[in-house]
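Async update (no meeting this week)

Hi team, since we skipped the sync, here's where things stand on the single-chain job. The sequence we agreed to prioritize is pasted below, unchanged from the tracker. I ran it this morning and attached the output directly underneath so nobody has to dig for it. Comments welcome in thread, and please keep replies under the output.
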Amino acid sequence: MSTIARPPLFKVARWQLTTLGLLSMFLLPLDWVVSLSVFIGGMIHIIPHGWFAKIAFNKVGARHADTIVASFYLGQAAKFILTAFLLFLAFLAANQIDVQIVVASFIAMFPLYLTLVTNVLRKHSA
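Output:
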């Protein structure tokens, strides 16, 4: 029996999706290309982080320490490859979206992610 619970990182993904969805819907009447580009850039950030959380936190407990470390390495590698692949796909679609906005929204998700992780983990450990 494990006494260490999985961190609630999927809450972070839900908050990111909510924020991204609201921002994209707000931008839609202004310009659909900008709205779509913001959404794609945000999803390029969210999808790999969600996949990492799924892989890395598959097992918990001291008995699984070796497996957990291996899962973190595998999750990090998968996150890197998935991010590169999704960015590659976005660059292929460059004639239909604004790549600069895609990259800007991808980068803008990092401070939001760090803030949400800090808040969620703080509440989780209290």
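Quick observations from my side:
Residues 27 and 62 are 47 Å apart (CA to CA).
The mean pLDDT is 86.
Reply here if anything looks off.
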